[in-house]
Amino acid sequence: MKFTCEKTALVNAISIASRTVAQKSTIPALEGIYIRAGVKLTLSGYNLETGITISVDANIEETGACIMPSRLFFDIIRKLPDDTVSISVDENPMKTKRLLALLSAGALSVSMLAGCGSTAKTDDTASGSAAADTSASADSDLEYVKSQGKLVVGITDFAPMDYKEDGSDEWIGFDADMAKAFAESIGVEAEFLEINWNNKVMELDGKGVDAVWNGMTLTDEVKTSMNCSSPYATNAQVVVVPSDKADAAKDLDGVKDLSFAVEAGSAGAAAADALGLTATEVQSQADALMEVAAGTSDACVIDLLMAGAMIGEGTSYPNLVYTLDLNETNGDEPENYVVGFRKDSDLTAAFNDFYKSAYEDGTVEKLAEKYGVQEAIVAP
Predict the structure, then answer these.
(1) Do 103 and 46 belong together in one domain?
(2) Closest to 320 in 3D by CA, of 249, 215, 265
(3) How many domains, in total, are found in the chain?
(4) Is a pLDDT exceeding 60 seen at residue 94?
(5) Domain span at 43
(6) DSSP result, 236-285
(7) Does residue 22 form part of some domain?
(8) Which residue, 269, 251, 248, 247, is CA-closest to 260?
């Protein structure tokens, strides 16, 4: 298989197809993107419930198909220069297993090749023209958002930062309300897209979202993958257990043998891994709490701000408590929350200016008190 296409179009297609790629599956093919070069180039993702197929304009030189790990493929392509790329797959007939299955989900059907013993090669085929020197950084992200009339914000269900009240379709919370105010300040509307947190970089680079704004901890991965705002709040990772197990879970020795649920790609997952805890990844921190409440996991690691809003007396989880601050246990400083934008995006400076103004005029304090996060707010 061999094809040539525009890098930006391919990155966008990978981002969209990855939304339905399974995080963990007993069927390895479901953890990758099915790439088919036939009459046209298509990328497909499927998780046994939902499927997405997207077409990409491409010059197809050799037909074929394979499955590529979505995150790895995305990381390879996005690091290439902004130009045309050529992708070739050399098939090894001794290793290739061709099992073609038609998988359907609702109105969507995805043809997937289960197993592909091929090696993918990526080569930059830049023409060397002056156009190749025109990078995305030369374009204004702010003007792009204005031209779309909306700021698309990538979030997960994460009270008190981004959540919906029962019976409502409106996203609210400290981050959600701040995003709406920021969008209004630049003359557009805020639109919220619930994303797979592990794919946040894909969504951002593929322009599926314009900002990742969901109590995002400033980690090394975030620093290298995004253009980050100044910190606006502090946080820590805490262990949550049923209240009847709290006394035994006040130190590392008391939790080291427990089974944990953690949000995939989160600071909580990193903290659990650093301490060698046995953890299962789930879609969101809200799902991690449900795992503990249902008894399918002994404990979970979530953000302190979420624990303060979601567990204990008067909440949906009155029988859950948090016991151990993993930042203190690891000897780490408190975490900082930031908003993530695309690399070299001028939206970052626009947000920092907005936050400074909103802090000075009392907007930040008012919203922080509304959602009970005033103690975590960082001055600009």
Answers:
(1) yes
(2) 249
(3) 3
(4) no
(5) 2-133
(6) -EEEEEEGGGSGGGSSHHHHTTSEEEEETTSHHHHHHHHTT-EEEEES-H
(7) yes
(8) 269
Q: What are 198's two structure tokens?
A: 């592990």
Q: What CATH number is attached to the domain comprising 177?
A: 3.40.190.10
**Alpha carbon separation from 220 to 23, 164, 217, 270 (Å, rounded):** 22, 30, 10, 11
Name which of 28-37, 127-136, 224-233 the model is least confident about.
127-136
Residue 104 and residue 11 share a domain: yes
Query: Which SS3 state, helix, strand or coil, does residue 40 take?
Result: coil
Average pLDDT of the residues of the chain: 83
**What pLDDT does 117 receive?**
35
Polymer length of the chain: 380
pLDDT at 277 over 90: yes
Rounded-to-integer distance, Cα 266 and Cα 229, Å = 18
CA distance 193 to 152: 7
Q: Predicted confidence band at 131 (pLDDT cuts at 50, 70, 90)?
A: very low
Instruction: Please tell me whether residues 210 and 346 are part of one structural domain.
Output: yes
**pLDDT over threshold 50, residue 118:** no
DSSP 59-94: EEEE-EEEEEEHHHHHHHHHTS-SSEEEEEEEE-TT
Predicted pLDDT of residue 287: 92
In a domain, 170, yes or no: yes
Instruction: Give the CATH number for residue 60.
Output: 3.10.150.10
- Contact at 8 Å (CB) between 19 and 45? yes
Token pair 């130190």 is at which residue?
Answer: 251
pLDDT of 50: 80
Whether residues 8 and 127 share a domain: the answer is yes
- Our CA angle for 105, 91, 103, nearest 5°, is 10
pLDDT at residue 125 greater than cutoff 80: no
Pick from 39, 38, 27: nearest CA to 101:
27
Alpha-helical regions (H) of 140-199: 141-148, 174-185
In 3D space, the residue among 75, 76, 23, 21 whose CA is nearest the CA of residue 43 turns out to be: 21
User: To which residue do tokens 């790629």 refer?
Assistant: 21
Q: Which two tokens stand for residue 167?
A: 């019976």
